[in-house]
Amino acid sequence: MEANNKSRLTYTSYMLTFFLCGALLFLFGFFPASYSASEEDSSVPNVRPTSLHGLKIHPPPRSYQAFILFLIDALREDFVNASTMPVAHARACEKLTVHVDIPTVTMPRLKSITTGTLSNFIDIALNVGHTEQLHDSLLHRLKQHKANVSFAGDRTWVELFPSEFNRHSANNDSFFVNDFYKGDRNVTKVLGLELEKRDWTLLILHYLGLDHIGHVEGNKSPRVKDKLKEMDDALKNILDHKNITNYLLMLTGDHGMAEGGGHGGNTPYETLVPLYLFSSDCSKSTGGPKRYNQIDLAPTLAVLLSIEIPKMSIGCLIPEMLQSLSLEHQMYAYFYNAHHLLNRARVKFGHEKVKHSDYYHWYQNATLLHKKLLHSIRDRESTSNVHYQVAKLNYMRMAREISMLLSESLVKFDYGFIAIGLALTLSSSLHIVLSILFLDVTDQLQMDRLKARQLLLSLVIGVISNVVSHHLDLIITSSIMQSVLLVLPIGISIYLSIDVVQALLTIMLPPLYSRRLKLCIPLPLPLLICFAIRTFTLGSSSFIEREYKTWYYLGNTLLVLTSFKTLRRRITKTNVELDGRHLHKIASVCLWQQRKVFVVLILLTLMRYLYRLNVIKSTLMLFSLFLLWARLRKFNNLLQIVLNAVAFLLVFGFRVLNGDVDFYGLKSHIMARFIVPTLVLFWCCMAANILLGYRLALPQKNRDGVLNIKPQNVLLQLLQTNLSCSLVVASLLHKAQNVVLLPTMLITLDQTYKLCDVYCTSARKFTVRQVHVYKIIMTIFIARMFYFYQGNSNSLSTIDLTPGYIGQTNYNPIVVGIFVTLNTYCAEIHSFLYLIVHTLRTDLRSVGIIQLQPPYAVAADTLVMPMYAAMIMLPAAFYLCLMLGFRYHLFIYSVFSPKVLYDCYTVLVFYFVFVITSLYFKLFKRET
Amino acid sequence: MATRFDQQKTKHQLFHVSLSLATTLICMAYMQYRRNWAHLGSFGDSLIVPIVFTGELLKVVLARFYGRIEDGVLTTKQRQKKAAYFTPRELLGGLTLQFLCTLLYAFICIILGAPVLANYEQTFVLSLLLTLLTVSPTVFLLGGGGALQVCFCEKPEFVTKCEDTALDLFKYNALGGILGAWAGSAVAPLDWGRDWQLYPIPNVIGALLGSALGNIYACTHVLYATARVYISKKSA
């Protein structure tokens, strides 16, 4: 049994690393970041057509003197109505609805507006932080035509177009969500100056305030109304300005706002935004609501601005915007866009295929009619309205068809990367699962040790297969360096696969002396079933959308089942001694013994209705901070307890000052002054707390001057300090009503562990491993339940960005990232840490097990951490396989893709926690 | 097998199983007749609970009927117990037990996601149905104290052979019912937008189907045993 007790942290961390590399490769293959780059040098002509079937035609001149794009971030369709924005509503010439594509985040949307093409899903990741610059857009074309473009507002524009603006004044940072008014006031100020100057052709204004209000306070916040009023006033300013005569003003949003205030998902609230058109002389149309795509804006604007349509554009024209053009010019616009799209289709699908398609036929038809129409116009004959309508119809339906086909064809997968990534993730997760389940095989095949010969062999195979697949164009990379580096993942996955296949063969084909290999850890059926259900329900989009239901159901089922089984065993046991008398008394006594579990179950039910407790959140927060403090007492010494109490008071103080909870109606301008000192004090408390915790861990001198090292306790002491400190920080980051989740989670975990102890020790065949397995799986389930109680979901719109900015005055991506992650994954991080601390602390003496061989705490790094990792990795690997199968699913980008990002990020977060914890184990664990 | 083929027992088992299946079939027929299933969760409007109640009662009567045959060979303990069935104490105990059980099931339903403040009538009906499928038959057969002992003792001595047969079959019924009701929730998160996806309906139907499946499983066991006896007799 010696081998069973050696630490497997290094091995597990390798497997986790491989898994993450594989997941990264998979994501690269699934969301190719630069599909547009390969089509850049395609043969779409760069100039406007000047002849139609031999007839000379001319592009229309610029139809307005001034163009203003009035962009309000997160302007949802139902936000603009007669009561919220009276001026806009009353004076708009056209009220259109624009459908926005996913991802509903700012940067991809700006790309769509300016280039007329769809953006990639992975742009979300790029949305935070780094921005790739565009090569061709409306603004590039305007610059070529020497037209002036001015800009004020969101910084993202300047990052996308660093040199295309003549003047720009951007906000300092677009992600600092606590700024509701200052940035917008600046934009309005710049607007005033620009209106005075009036030397620009296009003015772009991008207001961020509404989006920030949504992120922080939600879409029902009273400030939304004020903000819309402010926007309406700015709009009125432009419309009434004396310098503005012949203009076109477009009021629109880059994306909508979900119920709750976020965005990024695929609900109608997020994907539908208004497009209101204002111009000096307009006939108000009374047509019904018309819906266009956001990519249609770019070609339409190009025509109106009298510039070339951007090369990548795949949008159609918006007829309502072309009303001011003459008949001939309108026809030119339709012809030009159709011509452009046809060229794009030729490049994409090939000449032959285009020639035999319906839309080519429509195009021919339309151009002939167009020619006839031009003849009649030039000969000053009466023009036939029928010809015009038919030609327009044909142009438009052809454009729509090609636009649809092209946007569908943008989905392109890089199967080479997907295959490598999948191989790596699958082999590493199977490897770790097998090595945990079958220790004998692991020893036999030395699966957790490096075998040089096998490694060499697999590297050689890796090199060969890499070269072959490059020759066959299965893998396409942009540089030779990347190609060489790819040998590594291929080699590793081959190495792992060899191990896995060997192990599987050993397990499946028992050796001749008919000794079947047995599982070395018990896998109780209910746990297995729940875990399997949890894994297989990932295959259904509705189960992913409502994943929280799965977790609540399964988690509570496991708790109820375990507690009732325990109850029954207890009663039966007592009953055997008493020989069947006083059964109801025994039953009630045993029930009373388990009262705490039932309290926990009721608490878990209550947590589902947490969002309704908004009314009493100040009381609730005070109470829960007290509870958390009481819970943390057992991990700390006296001084730390006092410091923690101060820290918690400061957290409450911060929330009061911030206005989140009510406390004797203090005045807000006084309170705002104290926020920063409170936070500074809080972090001082934290630092002192950590110092105290770590000082105890250092080797100290006794009174006698002898170095006194307490080897066993050091590790536990440090981990406890870490746990309690990060819990305190989490209480600062959590929303006021969510703080109650922290103590509840600790109580739940505590009671669950007790239940598992009692349940497993009352079994006929007691094994320590069973206790561990129960605790690990229960912890995973409870962590996931609390993760969803917190308000998280599988949609990107529920990520709460507010905690990232607590105490921040500007946008620092690292700090914001850490804070948001710590807040979002609070439950998962802390329950894992708690499980480790619990495993190290516990002795089973309390439940009547005195002698244990091997000791309970040893399992922390031999079983608990590796198995937890395996349990995290296995469903994620399965989900990646599912993604490959579902790549043409209707909901792949709206439901499955965000989930895969969440899943990979969960593994990443776990990886960091795991690595840090294992470092502590490596550094401070002394063998006794 | 050393055990002798017991014709009476097999007959009892088969009758019992067909009674359960008939109950489920009647329920299904009733649901088909009503077409709209929205009422399944209401107490006053749905006939499911009375039908299941009658079915379970009939099963107990069946067990009593077969029990009469072995009246002569009872031990004193069994005789005492049998005489005590209809005392007020036992009746009261049985009622209390069932009531507590209904409460417990309602509690579990709420923990597993039933609405806390709304739909309490539906929750009540569901837990009543589950009680009827699981605890009630045993209570009807053995009284409250007896049911408790059956649940928590290895094998009480007062249970007669015939009662044992019935209890064995009740076990399948109960397990099937609980698992069915549990699994019924699986359709709740799906976005099909059907009206039968509303809270108690899939669970009620799941409980009925589950108990039917449990009975079918039991039935195959009985038939398999019978067939084996038959074949071995023939070959001998």
From TrEMBL, chain A:
Keyword NADP: no
Molecular function GO terms recorded: CP2 mannose-ethanolamine phosphotransferase activity
Biological processes annotated in GO: GPI anchor biosynthetic process
InterPro entries attached to this UniProt entry: Alkaline_phosphatase_core_sf, Phosphodiest/P_Trfase, PIGG/GPI7, PIGG/GPI7_C
Chain segments annotated as transmembrane: 415-442, 454-472, 484-507, 519-544, 615-632, 638-658, 670-694, 773-791, 811-837, 858-880, 900-921
Domain GPI ethanolamine phosphate transferase 2 C-terminal: 527-911
GO cellular component: endoplasmic reticulum membrane
Keyword terms, alphabetized: Membrane, Transferase, Transmembrane, Transmembrane helix
Protein name: GPI ethanolamine phosphate transferase 2
Organism: Drosophila lebanonensis
Protein's gene: LOC115629707
UniProtKB/TrEMBL annotation, chain B:
Location in or out of the cell: Endoplasmic reticulum membrane
Domain of life of the native organism: Eukaryota
Residues that span the membrane, as ranges: 12-31, 37-58, 91-118, 124-152, 172-192, 204-224
Protein name per UniProt: Uncharacterized protein C1450.15
Annotated keywords: Endoplasmic reticulum, GPI-anchor biosynthesis, Membrane, Transmembrane, Transmembrane helix
Pfam assignment, any one: PIG-F
Membrane topology listed for this record: Multi-pass membrane protein
GO biological process: GPI anchor biosynthetic process
Any one GO cellular component localisation term in the record: endoplasmic reticulum membrane
InterPro entries: GPI_biosynthesis_protein_Pig-F
Associated pathway: Glycolipid biosynthesis; glycosylphosphatidylinositol-anchor biosynthesis
